Amino acid sequence: MNYYLIIPAHNEEAFLKLTLDSVVKQTLLPKKVVVVNDHSTDATEAIIDQYTNSYSYIHKLNTTSSTLHMPGSKVVNAFKKGFETVDDAYDFIVKLDADLILPKTYFETIATTFKQHSTAGMAGGFIYEENNNGQWLLNHPMNKDHIRGAFKAYTKACFKAIGGLRSSMGWDTVDELLCRYHGYDIITIDSMKVKHLRPTGKGYNKKARLLQGEAMYKMRYGFWLTAIASAKMAAKQKKPKLFVHNLQGFFQAKKNKLDYIVNEEEGAFIRNYRFQNVKRKLF
């Protein structure tokens, strides 16, 4: 299967080489890799140039955006600019972060998964992060059927059906909900252990704390689903303030009448799907 990788990179000199090394060692190589140098001020571009000079399928795209590491919009906007440079001759497309080390059979396994599951729309492994004792442990606060945004792989049919990625916090939740809305399955692969070199959330600035609640508003969760989801999130992460921040973000977005990122029918499906999951866990 042919696949393209798009790698947004902003000041990733500490990790990018390790990520690209794991890409070029894949048992199934990508047809094309686009590394989007997004307003980097460190040695990121020089590292990209080393690989574009050595591997014909790796390409660089320089772009300029905000220097703030805001979750959602910045990385998705960089991805979209990279996506604009590729053609339509791919079987699956991948948004890959620049701070990962992939198992060498990662994309061969993804390709096999898509071949074996005709209804699969998305596939991915799981993130592992290193603790203070040097142990690589599973870091997955969400459900086991969720694929982290760091390495999302989409079939072309699914990617087109969901309308690509949304430039908003919550993009890596709404894409999965829309995947299901359009009748596709999400396949997670336990054996694919991806090393994440930067602990989750370390790059986010303080302005990002309200964006989760804003995202829930934009996905048309409504108040009660937002409250339930926020309480669950706060409990899992052991951060009571997270519940408060989410609700503040939700009501601020409602007050400002921000645009939704799904239509009414999609929103109704999302609320029903989420509430059904809540009922299953309670009863």
Q: What's a quick, concise take on this entry?
A:
With 283 residues, this protein is α/β, with parallel strands linked by helices. It is built from ten helices and nine strands. It is 41% helix and 20% strand.
Structure description:
- With 283 residues, this protein is α/β, with parallel strands linked by helices.
- The protein has two domains: 3-196, Spore Coat Polysaccharide Biosynthesis Protein SpsA, Chain A (Alpha-Beta Complex); 207-282, no CATH class.
- Helix content is 41%, strand content 20%.
- The chain has ten helices and nine strands.
- It has helices at residues 16-24, 44-54, 73-83, 106-116, 156-161, 171-181, 211-218, 223-237, 240-255, 264-282, and strands spanning 3-9, 32-38, 58-63, 92-96, 100-101, 120-130, 136-138, 151-155, 185-196.
- Strands 1, 2, 3, 4, 5, 6, 7, 8 and 9 form a nine-stranded mixed beta sheet that branches.
- Strand 6 (120-130) and strand 7 form a beta hairpin.
- Helix 8 (223-237) runs antiparallel to helix 9 (240-255).
- The protein is globular, with a radius of gyration of 19 Å.
- The mean pLDDT is 91.
